[in-house]
Design a protein that fits this description.
This protein has 375 residues and is α/β, with parallel strands linked by helices. It contains 16 helices and 13 strands. α1 packs across α16 and α8 crosses α11.
Length: 375
């Protein structure tokens, strides 16, 4: 009989990006019972999302410090009373004091490899917890081999101790859009009738937006008439932390034009990505690169960087550029000048995206849970 696992999703933010998307897609793909401990306001969401799960809402832990105290002193008891033998903590930290088997997910190694893209407080907090959780957990899940290699470089935990389980993509949401869907998304998002280059991600330093904006401005000034009208650069995603990018937006010169479209609801994302001239994701490094995979699944040509896990996701189905503005300018112009290349990348992206499924991701997690109880 399979062991019962409690998954602590109390750290999932309201905007389902990044870790939130991973958690939601994962629990919705399980084919056996699990227990989900969640924030009170998320209880109905998880009951609908994961009908096989037993959902246990936890009151009074919306503040970060309260949630951390609950994780350390209350979560183990919640798991024992639920009959769970495994606790999966999907965001770096684990309860310190429990005899139950612990499984933890580390999403990337950038707290070590690129400390400048995180606040000083987060750097100290997550570096400490990564080292501590790796020692305490019976299994550590990472979303890519690159993440396992990077973590092994900076911690005393060898690469072989990490289990790589790739994320997936939901083809019901992320698929090539119809012309009507693209037109509706353009109208809803205020993109008008002209083409756009799409960016999707949290607005924070790791996404390298100042370099992208400089590159776009330079590319727009070199745009040739035979390529069609100069596209706008659309920036979609919630504000994160770090310096305001407004000065970099203001520095973009005509004929370039930047449009901030903010957080996009999921039903519009496939048309926003798939309807773009191409997608630019110039990240300084990703533990996986879910936006790249989702753009590929929508049939978009993608320009990204060969940093960390991004080549594991993109393979030969995306165009790569280094992270500096001149290299990105060259990448933008290369895609602008070659519609056949954009079509080839779009078709190859859809095909490669089929290799990544949430069902396979869920099966990989269940296997880890079972192994954790036998160690």
């Amino acid at each position: 009989m399979a062991e019962l696992t409690l998954i602590d999703v109390t750290s999932v933010p309201a905007n389902r990006a990044g870790v939130g998307r991973y958690v939601d897609e994962l629990v919705g793909a399980f084919d056996r019972e699990v227990v989900i401990a969640c924030q009170e306001h998320d209880a109905d969401h998880y009951r609908a999302l994961a009908p096989l799960a037993r959902v246990l809402p936890q009151p009074g832990i919306r503040r970060v410090w309260r949630r951390l105290l609950w994780e350390q002193f209350t979560l183990p008891g919640v798991a024992r009373r639920a009959g769970a033998t495994v606790i999966h903590s999907p965001h770096y930290t684990v309860p310190l004091f429990t005899r139950l088997a612990r499984v933890v997910t580390f999403h990337d190694a950038t707290f070590f490899s690129d400390p400048g893209v995180h606040t000083p407080l987060k750097r100290v907090f997550f570096r400490t917890w990564i080292r501590l959780s790796a020692r305490l957990a019976r299994a550590v899940i990472v979303p890519s081999s690159a993440t396992a290699r990077e973590l092994a470089k900076y911690t005393s935990t060898p690469e072989s101790a990490y289990t790589v389980v790739y994320h997936g993509v939901d083809r019901r949401i992320f698929h090539p859009p119809t012309e009507a869907a693209v037109a509706e998304a353009a109208l809803t998002l205020g993109l008008g009738g002209s083409p756009w280059i799409a960016f999707l991600g949290t607005i924070e330093p790791r996404k390298n937006l100042p370099a992208l904006l400089e590159a776009y401005s330079a590319a727009a000034s070199q745009w040739l008439p035979e390529w069609g009208p100069v596209p706008s650069l659309a920036l979609a995603g919630s504000d994160g932390w770090g310096p305001d990018i407004a000065p970099h937006v203001a520095a973009v010169k005509a004929p370039g034009r930047v449009q901030r479209v903010g957080y996009i609801d999921l039903p519009l994302v496939h048309a926003y990505l798939g309807g773009a001239l191409f997608v630019a994701y110039p990240s300084l490094g990703e533990g996986f690169g879910l936006p790249v995979l989702e753009a590929m699944s929508c049939g978009a040509a993608v320009l990204t960087t060969p940093r960390l896990a991004l080549p594991e996701v993109g393979g030969d189905a995306v165009e790569y550029s280094e992270t500096d503005a001149p290299a990105l300018t060259h990448g933008i112009l290369a895609l602008a000048a070659d519609p056949a290349l954009r079509r080839r990348l779009g078709e190859a992206g859809v095909e490669r995206a089929e290799l990544f499924t949430w069902q396979a991701c869920a099966a990989g997690h269940l296997s880890v849970y079972d192994r954790a109880t036998r160690r």
